[in-house]
Amino acid sequence: MGALMRAHDWSTTTIGVREQWPPSFVTLVRIMLNSRQPMFIAWGSDRTLVYNDSYAPMLGSRHPSALGRPFFETWPEVRDEVGALMDQVFAGDPVHMDDLQLTLHRNGYPEETHFAFSYTPVSGDDGVVEGLFCACTETTRQILVERRSLSERQRQRSLLQQMPGFVAVLRDPDHVFEYVNDAYVTITGRRDYLGRGVREVFPELMGQGFFELLDRVYATGEAYTASTLPIRFAGEDNDRFINFIYQPIRDDAGAVTGIFAGGYEVTDQVRSRAALADSESRYRTLFESIDVGFCIIDMRFDDAGRATDYRIVEANPAFERQTGADVVGRWVSEFAPDLEPYWFDLYGRVARTGEPAHCENKADVFGRWFDVRALRVGDPLDRRVAILFSDISERKRMEEALRVMNATLERQVSERTAERNFLATIVERTDIMVVRRQMIWDIQRCSGAEALVHLG
Question: Taking the complete model, does pTM exceed 0.90, yes or no?
């Protein structure tokens, strides 16, 4: 820029030829040209522009023609924003701004730019302001990076806010709360979180091991994951259970600066599993102790939808006693290859339709009678069927014995009834003969008129 200034014809500008430059202006030019910070001078009534090498990139395609031209001929697009500021400086008041946003056309298209600068008035010997001196820094990249970073943080926090699980961001070795989402507040209750350490916010967690875990993660930089860990908050009589992770947060140099805490409350699931385990224990006790045979089978169908085989998935001891075989996990074709198709049709129909079935049938392969109840397990796509077997062979034998006995009694009763009917006939006939004989005797003793009365 020094070479360009020496070669420039200053006689056509308000500054005038170099030999007539004011000492104050010469001093500022020397300072400016020897500085690595972007600087410019706006001199005279038309505010002629002079600048150094560090300022040249800010001009874009307007360099080097901007040298020696009035400031607003070079920057017409900023007259409204900058003109008032320069007027203030030429009135004797310095101006400093940390961030001035301008839309520049320095490369042939509008672009958002940001600057931090100081405008300093420069007075002549008579005290009248002749120009302004500006030390400036373009902060466009920094501002845009910060804006993107802020936007990203806001986007991330928006995502964290929408998470169904609880989230907290802690910073520094004291684990100071920097962020919590609504799910975190729902679980832990409304408290004064932000800017306070975990130990201050949750004094009731002392002795439960959480503070020590956070300290370890921050010190070692190693994440910690826990499943169904009990936790008890102030004012609560029972433990809650949570799944969570403590993930270290690192800066660009890799140093741990905070901890991300996130997870889910699983209290309901833990209690449900405990209740289910208790229920299963009671079910298992009943399952194994009842005398009724019980099993669950998995059906096999051919392409036409006909049941061709089934596998015993689960069976109780009573079922194994009734079948006399170790059947769990085996297909029925393996231990009862002669099982009649009736059972396949019955169980296949239950599996397909979901309609329960009840029947009494004699299983030829076992040679015994069974009372059988079958129902589908699960949804229509499930091919499993639960079956209750009751061996009723003894009852059937008793029913047959009772039938035979009843038939014998009926025959005997019939025979005795016939005998009674025969004897009754003889008695009846005998009685008639006796009556007739008595009448004859009576007639013989009566006169003719009395005899007619008797005959009547």
Answer: no
Q: Which residues contact 241 (CB under 8 A, 6 or more apart)?
A: 228, 229, 230, 231, 265, 266, 267, 269, 270
Query: Would you state the structure tokens that stand for residue 308, as one six-digit string?
Result: 């061709």
Going across the sheet that includes 95-104, the strands are 48-51, 39-43, 129-138, 111-123, 95-104
Task: Name the residue with tokens 């005959």.
Answer: 455
**In angstroms, how far is CA 200 from the centroid of its own chain?**
31
Q: What 3 state SS string does 246-298 have?
A: EEEEECCCCCEEEEEEEEEECHHHHHHHHHHHHHHHHHHHHHHHCCCEEEEEE
Residues 283, 265 contacting (CB under 8 angstroms): no
Between CA 168 and CA 210, with CA 205 as vertex, the angle to 5 degrees is: 60
| Most distant CA pair in the chain, distance | 201
Distance from C-alpha of 225 to C-alpha of 61, rounded to nearest angstrom: 57
CA 301 vs CA 132, 239, 310, 335: distances in Å: 95, 49, 9, 19
Residues 399, 404: Cα–Cα separation, whole Å: 9
The predicted-structure confidence for 187-208, as pLDDT tens digits, reads as follows 888 999 999 999 999 999 999 9
Bridge partners of 132, per DSSP, are 42, 121
* 12-47 pLDDT tens trace: 898 999 999 998 899 999 999 999 999 999 999 999
